[in-house]
Amino acid sequence: MSRKLKWGILGTAEIARSAIIPAIQESEYGDVVAIASRRAEHAAEVAEQMQIPRSYGSYEELLQDEEVEAVYIPLPNHLHKEWTIKAAQAGKHVLCEKPSSLNAMDTTEMVEACNQAGVVFAEGFMYRYHPKHQRIKEIINSGEIGDIRGIHCTFTFNQADQQGNVRFNREMGGGSIYDVGVYPISAARMYLDREPEAVMVHALYSPEHGDVDMMASGLLEFPGDVTLTFDCGMWAASRSNMEILGTKGTIAMPKMFGWEKSTMVPQIFVHTGTVTREERLKGRNSFLLQVEAFSTAVLEGKPLPYDPSDAILNMKVIDACQQSARERRRVELS
């Protein structure tokens, strides 16, 4: 590759500072040239700490920076739509943190704005870029575990004592379904390569935490009588695992969605009959892999492994899950 993609960061969220910015700086294909915050002094402080050349006291100023070619958006969920569209209109490519927005209609508008502007758009599901998922699909397609009967996935953590956490603000897109429930849902769609037909979700809403869903458990019905059962939460012990159940065996992933910032080796366990096989793939930082895929899509025109339409489809399922949880009923997807 002849040059690096010039990045601007819209916001100073923890995930930007601990994961995405280091990944871009480590990448051979990217360079962080600017960062913005609503407080100029905070942006300047982060820029100095992370050796970023320029800082801005507003997101608008960063979008006016002609050197910036792409932006990463780690802002609160309710701001994703506004700043994705503004970035696209400014001619910037967009990597937007998950969930893409608060509903499928908003995500559709975001994707259309990026298409009209001729810029690349991607939703920031970093885990999907790790090669272990391609390996799991190979195992499934080989028939080793037989026909898929169901998938079970968990993603929970406990931050209930963090007062003022943006995840506890309903108007800003808080709640466990938006924050971590999106992961098992996107993973099941990825592995099964099909869309669910109906969902049923039960949630724990907490008045102490802005009436957001602090815990949710759900069932997604896929064609062929295959189901995903999942639970997600922000008020429970930490878990992040998945099991795929087949007629002949199972595939288990005990660290399904970990922040693979280091070269920690992910593990896959395949159990058939009385035999269990452990597979270890050479670990790479999933954030780095995501950044590299996005950069090559912009600089070389290589298609992203996940089309922007995937973000719309995933949000349609999330919309149904939110509706099911609030109305306490099964919701069919058209």
What do you see in this structure?
The protein has nine helices and 15 strands. With 334 residues, the chain is of the alpha/beta class. The protein folds into two domains: 5-126 and 290-305, Rossmann fold; 130-283 and 314-332, Dihydrodipicolinate Reductase, domain 2, CATH 3.30.360.10. The protein has a nine-stranded mixed sheet. The chain has a six-stranded parallel sheet with strand order 3-2-1-4-5-6, with helices on both faces. It is globular. The mean pLDDT is 95.
Strands of the widest sheet, in order across it, are 14-13-12-11-7-10-9-8-15
CATH topology of the largest domain: Dihydrodipicolinate Reductase, domain 2
Q: Low-confidence parts, pLDDT < 50 over ≥5 residues? A: none
CATH class of the largest domain: Alpha Beta
Q: What fraction of the residues are assigned to beta strands by DSSP?
A: 25-35%
Name of the CATH superfamily of the largest domain: Dihydrodipicolinate Reductase, domain 2
- Give the helix tally: 9
Portion of residues in helices?
A: 25-40%
InterPro entries: Gfo/Idh/MocA-like_OxRdtase_N, Gfo/Idh/MocA_domain, GFO_IDH_MocA-like_dom, NAD(P)-bd_dom_sf
Keywords: Oxidoreductase
Pfam families: GFO_IDH_MocA (PF01408), GFO_IDH_MocA_C3 (PF22725)
Family: Belongs to the Gfo/Idh/MocA family.
